[in-house]
Structure formats: C-alpha cells, structure tokens
Specification:
Length: about 220
C-alpha cells in the first residue's frame, strides 16, 4: 500500500514578516502608537516645573480633553498654554528642570522634549493670543493623580474650531469631544463666536443634525 508523503510543514501556514522596503512593512511602521502613559508622565513632569516657576499656564490639546473625560488614545504630544510675555521665563524654568528646548519653525509656540515625548508650549491658539482670562478660568483637575489647570471645555473646543481649515478639516475627533462635553459648553456662545467661520459653523450645524446639541431655532433643525 502506497502512502504519498507530504512535505514537512504542509498544511501549516507560515506568516512571514514583511521585509524592509516592502510596502506592508513600511505601512506597519507608520501605524500610530499608543503613548498614553508616557505622554501623561511627561505632562506631569512639565506641569510640576511650571507650577514651581510661578508662571500661569493651562493644559491644552488632546491631554486636556483626556483630563475632562474624553475617551482618547494619546499618540502625539502634550500641549500647554502660556502667555507670550512669559515665554522666556518658562523656557528658562524648563531648561533648568532638564527639559530640552528644540527649534521650531512656527512663530506661535515653543517646542520642547522630555521623556522621549514632544511638548508644545503655545502662546497663540489658532492665531488668537492666550489671554489672562483663559488661564484664570482654567479649572484645576487631576491628571493621572497630579493636579494642574486645564483649559475649560469651552476654550478647548473653541480653539479646535478656530483651527479648522481647508487643509485640516477632520470632524471625527471634534465630534467625540462635543459628545462628551456637551453638557458643559455654552453652545449659543460658541455659535456666536464662530458664526463667520464656514467650517466651524458647518460642524456646529452637523451637531444639531446628529442630535448632539439642540437647534437654536426651527430653521436650524432641518426637515
């Protein structure tokens, strides 16, 4: 009785890692990584130095949204708002605390690095200066057990709306922020502030059509 022997390994699938230069290999390296805990550690380090310096500041960006309870996987950097007139003092305080200041082409922020993570020290949000009122109104919240001032939900979303442009118009992350923080935002004030900005106005109208927020009047509610 003849038995046809199979080559060793027949029937088993071999999963080979793509070689360097292969498009699949390159794409896998482009996938965003979850830096949540590392970014939080850097955020706490910088906040401690800023608190010790005495300069007014507030946490901003995706980490601020995270502090307000917005579901997020942190992948990029941590952002802080400071006043333009405090830039030199803040930079000195961070340098003395071991934070590396790095060159930045932008003229509305200072870039830094610590713990392998990027830090943006912002003194203009979408071409609008960070104000005393903005920093004064920032509530003090616990960010991974360290308390620090965080931009209000209103200022957080308003600055994101003001930054929308034809080259950067991703409503997805904004929608998550709006759904999570909708009870803590004065939507009529936000409409008034951004009524002359087509993309921001379109996003606010989208929120009405998705029943995230109430319409201001019947015309806005749609059919």
């Amino acid at each position: 009785m003849n038995h046809t022997s199979e080559p060793r390994g027949a029937g088993r699938r071999l999963h080979l890692a793509p070689a360097a230069g292969d498009p699949a290999h390159d794409a896998s390296h482009d996938l965003p990584q979850d830096h949540t805990q590392s970014i939080l550690e850097t955020t706490k380090q910088v906040a401690a130095l800023l608190k010790a310096s005495g300069y007014a500041f507030a946490l901003a960006g995706s980490v601020a949204a995270h502090a307000h309870g917005v579901p997020a996987v942190l992948r990029h950097d941590t952002d802080f708002c400071i006043r333009r007139e405090d830039v030199d003092g803040v930079v000195q305080a961070l340098r003395e605390g071991g934070v590396e200041i790095v060159p930045a082409p932008e003229d509305w922020l200072v870039k830094a690095r610590a713990g392998g993570e990027e830090i943006d020290l912002i003194f203009e949000l979408a071409h609008r200066p960070v104000t005393d009122d903005m920093l004064r109104n920032a509530p003090v919240l616990s960010v991974d057990s360290v308390r620090m001032p965080v931009l209000t939900p209103y200022d957080l979303l308003s600055s994101r709306l003001a930054a929308l442009s034809e080259h950067h118009c991703d409503f997805g992350p904004l929608l998550t922020v709006a759904r999570t923080l909708r009870e803590r935002i004065d939507w009529n004030a936000l409409r008034d502030e951004h009524r002359r900005e087509p993309l921001a106005d379109a996003f606010l109208y989208l929120l009405v059509r998705l029943d995230v927020i109430d319409p201001r009047d019947r015309r806005e509610a749609g059919p």
